[in-house]
């Protein structure tokens, strides 16, 4: 009898139909529950992929120190993967990340280095490059690493296709590193070029954890604009309101980027008929409780 190890439980997440938040017009809204991964987010997939593939190429060996800039979920996933596979993990992240995220990484044994909130992920990425150049560890660099989208081409995309029986018409995804949307788009377009791929970014001035509007010089090199049919700008209040709706109307406790994904899916649903619209619920909402975002309105 085969007993799976923890890393074998990554992926194969549920795809559920929303029951109370409906779009009408014959449309079906489907949520891919990535918070069901063992470290609690969609980033479990690329975290394992980046370490496994680097190991296979002989670029890293257990015992090495790995360095990564992260705003949270990738850091938690990499900390878990490093614990499983025997690496020392150093995370560089903005000080504004939620307490739950920082504590989760530390619980897995990762070392945290914080940069200023104003410097944000750009400062974190610059510091990671400096530390690697000084020989303090080896980079994974989720923003430029093709093993990031490869994980979604091999797993997330095929799961969406199989779980919808090939009927998916629209895929809606928040864009951070862009690994998820790149890998899923590549797979779904190979199966059916008519599937529409919709990416989400914050509108100017919005701060939504997990979604980024990158300055041109920091745009992830894994991003290929030709793989995205349409990009929607999501407002901060809009994302937060829909995050609360997911919890209160569907029982799905998720983060702000997932609220943004729901908002984007509903916008698409208002324009189409008889569509099967799937969106990514990136993580679990329990890692945002300290932010007060779920507090009852007064």
Q: How is this structure best described in words?
A:
The protein has 298 residues and is α/β, with parallel strands linked by helices. It has two domains: 165 residues, Rossmann fold (3-Layer(aba) Sandwich), CATH 3.40.50.1100; 97 residues, 3-Layer(aba) Sandwich (Rossmann fold). Strands 1-2-10-7-8-9 form a six-stranded mixed beta sheet. A four-stranded parallel beta sheet has the order 5-4-3-6, sandwiched between helices. Helix 3 links the parallel strand 4 and strand 5. The model has no long low-confidence stretch (mean pLDDT 93).
Layout of strands and helices, then pairs:
Layout: E1 15-17, E2 28-33, H1 44-56, E3 65-69, H2 73-85, E4 88-94, H3 99-107, E5 111-115, H4 120-133, E6 138-139, H5 147-163, E7 170-174, H6 179-191, E8 196-202, E9 230-234, H7 236-250, H8 256-269, E10 276-281
Parallel strand pairs: 2-10, 3-4, 3-6, 4-5, 7-8, 7-10, 8-9
Antiparallel strand pairs: 1-2
Helix pairs in contact: 1-2, 1-5, 2-3, 5-6, 7-8
